[in-house]
Amino acid sequence: MHSPQLNPEARAGDDWPSELYRILKxxxxxxxxxxxxxxxxxxxxxxxxxxxxxxNVLTTEEExxxxxxxxxxxxxxxxxxxxxxxxxxxxxxxxxSAIGRFPLLMLVTMRGExxxxxxxxxxxxxxxxxxxxxxxxxxxxxxTAEDLIETVESAASLAYESDQQIAVLIGxxxxxxxxx
Amino acid sequence: MVSGLGSPTYDxxxxxxxxxxxxxxxxxxxxxxxxxxxxxxxxxxRVLALTGDGEQLMGLGGIATIGVARPRNLDIVVIDNQxxxxxxxxxxxxGRGVDLTAIATACGFAATGTVRTxxxxxxxxxxxxxxxxxxxxxxIKVLAENPxxxxxxxxxxxxxxxxxxxxxxxxx
Lengths: 180, 172
Fold this sequence. Notes:
The structure holds two protein chains of two kinds.
Chain A: H1 16-26, E1 29-34, H2 41-48, E2 54-57, H3 62-73, E3 77-83, H4 87-90, H5 94-100, E4 104-109, H6 122-134, E5 138-142, H7 145-162, E6 165-170, H8 172-175
Parallel strand pairs in A: 1-2, 1-3, 3-4, 4-6, 5-6
Chain B: E1 2-3, H1 7-14, E2 22-23, H2 31-41, E3 47-52, H3 53-58, H4 60-69, E4 74-80, E5 83-84, E6 90-91, H5 100-106, E7 111-115, H6 118-129, E8 136-141, H7 156-166
Parallel strand pairs in B: 1-2, 1-3, 3-4, 4-8, 7-8
Antiparallel strand pairs in B: 5-6
């Protein structure tokens, strides 16, 4: 194993990215793809340092939907990280996950809903959950660190063991205010 | 093999159905990237994404993503008739100066090429059978025609489970 060290003192409240990393590793996730978001930066760093996981930086989020399907065809579990603005880019490609019943786990950090400075984030924020549900995904949401960890654990089981397509929305309140 | 929606899916099926084929009927722009995820999961096997000019044009950013990922076991072959054949043969970008091989070269692909004759296709087949240092993209220029179609199953769950069983994975 070449996994980065977890902080043994970490608790859900102060280090939820490490907890998510631990859960996804325990679920045997072997590929991770992402368009960066500040809220995902620690998780991206941890996966990028992990030689047992292949990471792909994407030019647009729907690429990750296709990569996830390919990974599953080849016998591997994957996870896709993005912010809410990227969800709109994914909609048609999600046809692949939905009609092929491919396991899919997306972790979406929310923008435009809590102490948001940039109004351009607001319309897609409003459209995130309805558009995901319209294309057939199950949407789960967490606004506290404790709830997030339980939610992702449950979402990983649903995705990889029950062939479901799941987006977990991580509330902006949890991520904290972006400093300008 | 992964085939892009439209004629590449019909063309792949026309040479014989195979458990190791994954046919797309949608997800435009995704063929090469499904190939990437598959190639990363199965580094010991060669993966070929067979697609068309319109499908690959929709996934141009994916060429950059694949160039950065640099799989050594993924080839993209674009059957390029310079038209959107499925929707009434509207002219595409590749007949108007856009060169997918130049884009792939600029994205760091290990090899690229364009072929126009059956003899060149034979040589390309031999080249694809050899190992590579990174991803490769080849364009096969073809006439814009509509020959009879050979249609594979449109049931993606069936094709997915058949593909996975071919690699030794059980259905859920």
